TrEMBL record:
Organism: Holothuria leucospilota
Keywords on record: Membrane, Repeat, Transmembrane, Transmembrane helix
Record's keyword annotation contains Glycoprotein: no
Cited SUPFAM superfamilies: CalX-like
Name of the featured protein: Hyalin
Length: 709
């Protein structure tokens, strides 16, 4: 068998008459005063890069000729069969660079070799680190257009003057570790501890002395001393909740008031009235645990079908150890709504709205699916709109105006026919066995991984692991990824191990990292990620490593490919690649969620106004938003109406803002003013008519007496 990748030999016949020059590899070098060795390296090379069979002696001249300030490793030479020779340049030991200095090194040959005049000088700049360096914005203004896809723009914070430093520009503050402490009277020592820290928490190479900058936003500590004699009662957090039809479970909170964490546990029991075993299920007993404020209880709606009528259940909490209970807040009124109607007239309306006559059924694999339909005309409010995102299951959609309501179902059925997506499939990897001294070779590669859109973990089967010992030749490694629905995705890695007859081993990477995942930062757009970088083995002389990222870099949410490339004298010799998946499990943060409010009405229905909440997500991407009501548009009726905003980010994390709009009758007269006015007018007309009839009767009577009739 012939190794197809190594069955050809390229022979180059060199014309010795080709002009060969010597020249500097770089034209500019910068040396910083603070660097540990205060020197740096460059190279003197042959151009074109053809190894010669003779040696070239080198010499250097400097301008200005002040040998007390700087040095160059001279003389030097380019050895036989080599292309380049390293040259070190730097200032003299203990030289104080003040101010910044520049000198030029010129290349000459002591053996008469030709010098490339356009590349025979090296400008060396010695940087005085005492130069004031500022940080500033790169731009002074930015313009962002509404139509841009992400509605954002980028700028940079830079160092001025633009001289790369050998250290990071970082502000270090001293501050309190905590901003609030709570001390209870009953605690044994009536004290608490905190700490004064350095921010950011990076060990510094210097001491924080008096006069260090103080973080003004975190230089105070608020200490609250709690009087344990304050009366504390047990109560529901909310006293009413409305559950739309189709909801199967929800949660309620039982809390201690005032909301101070206690050093004891408060057990409680729950009782529903009327007996509602056919409507809901809730645990009978629970407790607000020690040092907690609230306990959350789960309430399950038992019936599986849509309801035929709206029902109300009262859930009452009491303490099992005679702990005080707030009599006004110890009952939760649960209203289970019936929305199962195709249309219902509420009053006089000039326009009847018509909902779709059938349920809209779609099949998707995503957690939330966008559903589109033709909306009716003449609507004033709706629970959902065409184009909104719906979860798997059945959702009732409600439309209405001032006089008419209609509803229909949107059913999202889960159907997974898509195979998992494979990431970081290496396709091919290579290794070498020297002089055929080994029957098999240990080899390492980055393993692939897969994810499924159903969010169900995939099952992996592989023929080999990532650090197997394989024989020389070609071996195929199979990775099979199967999701919960039997959909298969495959990655095939071709491992090619060749035998070479040489004492020279090309440099190669060892311990290339496998793909891995990290959780995204809870509050920041970027996440700092570290890993153990691969090692380089073999003959590493004149080898250069280039990489796309460094351990400790900051990454966005999502998948980023990291690559390392190894080259020797400009020729690629090895490659290492892996993926970093920064996944987001943090729900969006809601700002300005409104408080519940009460509004008055004499007519039994009206709109309400409130400032709408907004969110910020740590992925720095827009969220998908849905809401049940709209300020100034939705018509509310007497009673408690729950308004719900739901915010969903691209990774399925949702946050909910909810509050109540309670509409009640207050300050209304028993009879409307226009009704009273009409009654008065009618009464006056009756009096006038009666008087007219009385006068007519008198006239008729007199005419009869006079014989005129």
């Amino acid at each position: 068998m012939v190794n197809e990748s190594a069955n050809s030999l390229t022979v180059t016949l060199i014309d010795d008459d080709i002009p060969v020059y010597i020249q500097f590899q770089d034209s500019v070098l910068t040396i910083y005063e603070a660097e540990s060795d205060s020197s740096t390296e460059t190279a003197v090379c042959i151009n074109p890069p053809i190894p010669q069979t003779y040696e070239i002696m080198l010499a250097f001249q400097t301008e200005p000729e002040d040998s007390s300030q700087h040095w160059v490793s001279t003389p030097s030479r380019i050895y036989s069969n080599r292309i380049c020779s390293r040259v070190r340049v730097g200032p003299r030991h203990d030289t104080v660079i003040e101010p910044t200095q520049t000198f030029v090194v010129t290349l000459v040959s002591s053996t008469g070799a030709m010098v490339n005049e356009s590349a025979n000088s090296l400008t060396v700049t010695l940087i005085d680190d005492d130069i004031p360096v500022y940080i500033q914005f790169q731009d002074s203004d930015l313009t962002i257009y509404e139509a841009e896809s992400d509605s954002s723009a980028e700028t940079a914070v830079c160092i001025n003057p633009p001289i790369p430093q050998t250290y990071e520009i970082m502000l270090v503050y001293i501050q309190f570790q905590d901003s609030v402490l709570t001390i209870y009277e009953a605690e044994s020592d009536s004290s608490a501890e905190t700490a004064v820290c350095i921010n950011p928490p990076i060990p510094q190479t210097y001491e924080i002395m008096l006069g260090a900058m103080v973080n003004e936003s975190a230089n105070s500590l608020t200490v609250t001393l709690i009087d344990d004699d304050t009366p504390v009662v047990l109560q529901f957090k909310d006293t009413s909740v409305t559950v739309p039809e189709g909801i199967r479970e929800f949660y309620a909170s039982i809390c201690l008031s005032p909301a101070f964490p206690r050093v004891f546990s408060v057990p409680f029991e729950l009782r529903a009235s009327p007996s509602a075993t056919d409507d809901l299920r809730v645990a009978q007993y629970g407790a607000v645990e020690e040092k907690s404020v609230c306990a959350e209880i789960k309430i399950t709606i038992l019936d599986d079908e849509f309801r035929e009528s709206t029902e109300t259940v009262n859930l009452t909490v009491s303490s099992t150890n005679e702990f005080p209970v707030d009599s006004k807040m110890n009952t939760l009124v649960i209203t289970i709504m019936d929305n199962d109607f195709s249309g219902q007239r509420l009053g006089d309306s000039s326009e009847i709205i018509t909902c779709p006559t059938r349920s809209i059924i779609v099949a998707e694999t995503k957690l939330f699916t966008q559903v589109v339909w033709t909306e009716p005309n003449g609507i004033n409010f709706s629970s959902k709109r065409s184009g909104d995102y719906f979860p798997v299951g059945t959702t009732r959609v409600l439309y209405g105006n001032q006089g008419f309501l209609c509803s229909f179902n949107v059913i999202v059925e889960e159907m997974d026919t898509i195979a998992p997506t494979v990431y970081n499939c290496p396709i091919e990897t290579q290794a070498k066995s020297v002089n055929n001294s080994q029957d098999s070779v240990g080899i390492f590669w980055s393993e692939p991984f897969a994810e499924d859109e159903s969010c169900v973990p995939v099952r992996l089967q592989s023929s080999h692991n990532k650090s197997s010992v394989l024989p020389a030749g070609v071996t195929k490694v199979f990775y099979n990824f199967t999701d919960a629905f039997g959909n298969l995705a495959q990655c095939i890695v071709t491992v090619n191990i060749s035998v070479i007859q040489s004492q020279h081993v090309d440099p190669f990477f060892y311990n290339c990292p496998s793909p891995f995942r990290v959780s995204a930062s809870l509050t920041e757009y970027l996440t700092r990620v570290t890993w153990r970088e691969p090692e380089v083995h073999g003959d590493v002389a004149d080898s250069i490593i280039t990489q796309t990222h460094y351990s400790g870099d900051y990454f966005q949410v999502g998948i980023t490919n990291v690559t390392y490339r190894l080259s020797t004298q400009g020729v690629p010799s090895d490659f290492c690649g892996f993926s970093i998946y920064v996944y987001d499990k943090t729900k969006p943060f809601i700002f300005d969620c409104p408080e519940s409010k009460k509004v008055k009405s004499c007519r039994g229905k009206r709109t309400a106004q409130w400032y709408e909440p907004y969110v910020r997500d740590n992925s720095n991407r827009p969220t998908r938003n849905t809401q049940t009501h709209y300020p100034g548009k939705t018509i509310f009726r007497f009673g408690t109406n729950k308004v719900v905003y739901t915010f969903l980010d691209d990774y399925g994390n949702s946050a909910v803002c909810s509050f109540n709009i309670t509409l009640h009758r207050d300050g209304c007269s028993a009879m409307a003013p226009w009704t009273v006015l009409w009654i008065i007018v009618v009464a006056l007309l009756l009096v006038v008519a009666r008087n007219i009839m009385s006068i007519r009767c008198n006239v008729l009577q007199k005419n009869e007496e006079n014989g005129n009739i």
